[in-house]
Amino acid sequence: MPETTRESLTSGGWKELEFGTFREGVAIHWIQPFENDQPGVALLKYEAGATVPRHRHMGLETIMVLQGTQSDEAGDYGPGCLVINRKDTEHSVWSDTGCVVLIQWDQPVKILQEELA
User: Fold this and answer.
1) Cα angle vertex 93, ends 76, 38, to 5°?
2) How many CB atoms lie within 10 A of CB 80?
3) Assuming Cys at both sites, which of 2, 24, 71, 100 could form a disulfide with 67, CB separation 3.0 to 4.6 Å?
């Protein structure tokens, strides 16, 4: 199998993978890190109540929700939802329940507003 293959993600295969810290309350498993102008592909695992502050998409972002519910200002997205965020769009993201998403970024996002401590 190619190094970038991950088994059974839609049926919980992500539970066997190692995750590192991405942001407070959000862990990451890189499938394909950003390198040599290639998009980044990862799994993000949100704890219940986790948030990502308002940010701008510097390129296309594609998200597939695998478990739980991810939310933004436009709505709530459960398992199987596909979310497309186009270049130059902005939003914040949260998960009240916790969730796991498969995400691809053409470019890293630009954080516009950090959470206040």
Assistant:
1) 110
2) 9
3) 100
Whether 74 has a pLDDT exceeding 60, the answer reads yes
Q: In the numeric block, which tokens belong to residue 117?
A: 């401590």
- Non-local CB neighbours of 55 within 8 Å, separated by 6+ positions: 90, 91, 92, 109, 110, 111, 112
Angle at 107 between CA 15 and CA 37, to 5 degrees: 100
Pairing between β-strand 99-105 and β-strand 26-32 as defined by DSSP bridges: unpaired
21-111 CATH: 2.60.120.10
CA-wise closest residue to 70 among 55, 57, 51: 51
Kindly report the backbone phi and psi dihedral angles of residue 11, in degrees, each rounded to the nearest multiple of 5, phi listed first: -115, 25
pLDDT band at 78 (very low <50, low <70, confident <90, very high): very high
**What is the enclosing helix (H) or strand (E) of 22?**
strand 20-23
For the chain, the first-to-last Cα distance in angstroms comes to 45
For the question of whether the overall pTM of this predicted structure is more than 0.85, the answer is yes
Report, as an integer, the average pLDDT of 20-43: 93
